[in-house]
Fold these 2 entries.
Entry 1:
Amino acid sequence: MTNSFDELADADCIFIIGSNTTVAHPLVATRLYQAKAKGAKILVADPRKIQMALFADVAVRQRLGSDVALLNGMMHVIVKNGWHNQAFIEERTEGFEDFLKVIEQFPPERASELSEVAVDDIVRMAEYYAKAQNGSIVYCMGITQHTTGVDNVKSLANLAMLCGHIGRPSTGVNPLRGQNNVQGACDMGGLPNVYPGYQAVTVPEIKEKFEKAWNATLSANVGLTVVEMVNGIEEGKVKAMVVLGENPLVSDPNAGHVRHALEQLEFLCVIDIFPTPTTQLAHVVLPGASYAEKEGTFTNSERRVQRVRQAIDPVGDARPDWQIIRDLSNRVGYPMKYGSAEEIYEEIRQLTPSYAGITYERIEGEGLCWPCPTTDHPGTPYLHKDRFARGKGLFHAIDYREPAEIPDAAYPFWLTTGRSYAHYHTGTLTRVSAHLDREMREVLLEMHPEDAGAYGVKDGDMVRVSSRRGTVTAKVQVTDRIGKGVLFMPFHFAESAANVLTNAALDPVCKIPEYKVCAVKVEKAA
Amino acid sequence: MDYRSVLTTCPYCGCGCGLYLEVVDGRIVQTLPSKTSPVNRGRLCIKGWNAHEFVHHPRRLTRPLIRRGDGQVEASWDEALDAVASELKRIKETYGPDSVALFSSAKCTNEENYLLQKFARAAIGTNNVDHCARL
């Protein structure tokens, strides 16, 4: 997030797109309600009539994968009416002229045709956001999990810059992180192209810095992303895999393909706290400690570094993951001598400038938001105050592209996936929690009443849902929360895994799979 | 009776709510929201209120397992760690370091993620390290 949670409550317009905030980030949703109570305009764009849509001043259901068209249409309206922030554009940005040329081509009528959002709604959303004093954008995986994910995010950045809604309190472009420590895993260099602190592996001086600090020769080649690793197995390039606390067999797109690939590995080691479909394929399974059994830090969506503290001893023979990795490293001939999580953290501080000023002692209470370069620095609640990371903010000229797969005669329905309020990701943790399991025991496929009527399906009936990649069986929930011709399915349930159906088509830049859009057909199960 | 209340951070979504784990005789019996956390100020969602339930679940993995034939059998830590290290060394030597790929985890701590990517890059010699941020 460019800004912090509390600032949202003071925005006078919040545009929520591709985030089911009340379900996936309930404590962020509380800020949205606070803002609403203070008179903020709430705008929601989501293919489902999510709870936040019921409280919105304008709520629209855009066609799956049409976000760029919708946003370009809004920006067209803003420019045509002179609602943009000319002073901000001149002082803080570049690339505006090229951007305008593309925006020209998106009059609201065309945007409406592509996105299936009424012209009037496009105009009203544009006006509310542009005319706000402090407009905030909140988004989540509904924006990113597309073959146009990068285009979608850049379009939101365009919108914020166009109106000067960035670099001030209660503004910004605010992605909510799906997992507790996605932010931290990225910050720590759990990515194939960067070391900790987003320092590129391809820059020779940076590589040298880490070679010296780690006393090792490092590779200058950018590594493989998750989906590329799976493809790499099939191509015979990847032979061994170590999986720390993840369940790619349920979480990855085209799950049947993932299973087939993992079965071909010469060696698979999985470190986890529960048996999962992925651990079952492993040659060696190592029992890790849960969050309650170890020390460390997590970094939340607002970049706040907070402590994790040990409450109990690890269950059975389980061990904290940092000890497991240390002991493995010593055995493969690269010595690691850490005696505590804090010792590792101190090394992180030395090598990661944005974390340098954050110590365990300083986050004993509230935590601190990075960047925090020195131990007397107060942390940074919002980014891009006087300048952007690259200097001037760059407008990107982005044309609309269709999703990789759209419905046709053979697969006539759109399918989109997401979370439910009681469960989390692949359900490894929530489905073994009695009170959460009780809330939702099985997958429910959302289907519009008219579609249900046409297929002769009632609430609670079982249907077979098939895509070009696989078939699952699911119980139908008839609801107008979802639009006609669209189906929604949560992905928590391994026995009817939505990701058997989803498309592994990737965004060409960031390689995110298109979980949010694929084409399926439905048959009544016998 | 031994009672402890330990302040920590919720393991579920990216909000990062502060909560107390209430521990009685080595078992976590409930969670309580931190009133002073700037994230949640005394509130939790349904997942946070139940964030302790999976910790003591009987299905937890508690021993290392090694595959033997079609099944997996319990092993000692030394056996299991030796098996992983020798296979990683063998595959790295046979096919090169880029034949090894590692998933780090958005569920694990910063310290663990740091160490896993350091292990990938410095000990194995590959940048093939990624996690489910995109998923």
Entry 2:
Amino acid sequence: MLFFSFFKTLTNQTVTIELKNDIRIRGILKSVDQYLNIKLDEIEVLDLDKYPHLSSVKSMFIRGSVVRYVMLPRSEVDVGLLEDATRREAANQAGKAR
Amino acid sequence: MFTTAAQLLDLTDKKLVLVLRDGRKLIGVLRSWDQFANLVLQDTIERIYAGKLYADVPRGIFLVRGENVLLLGEVDLDREDDIPLSVTKAPFEEVFELKKKEDNKRKLGDKKRNSELQALGFEPEHSGEILF
């Protein structure tokens, strides 16, 4: 659930999402759920000429399973904090496994 | 809040573009859904694109299994008639023939690339799952 919580802290930031079929979409992250499905508002499709079906779309729901990358604003990510949280989560998991 | 249900609730009864994993583009009104993003679309048309052409095919009601959903876009009703200049409407038969040719060409290319990758010891991307 770590990355679910992490993405929740990024709501209302502008992110760029690259899908597994190479479409790249920039928009405001509106919400994320436990499967990392993502809702974007005020979207802008990079290289729109190749994807004319998205020309009149203003907001979208992207299924988590088709996302390849999420590009985040550097200033909004506290890498140190994320590292700590990751270690804590890993320690918890190790504790559970024993 | 922050559930699939909450995300889809806002889109209910709206006109949407649904893109499926096999590359189909469906345009219809979202009437029902569940937590897996299984969807019901009403008054659906399928819009097929090939080269610089497109065509609409009336389809009716769709019940889509969630795993096949790529994305769901809300159509801006003020802009839905502004079709980009890069594509023009054409008769279905013409677009369908062109699309068949394009698909075959892509399939051949994919097959070649995947076998070359496999010879080098790489698993093809998406591990064989097709995504357009």
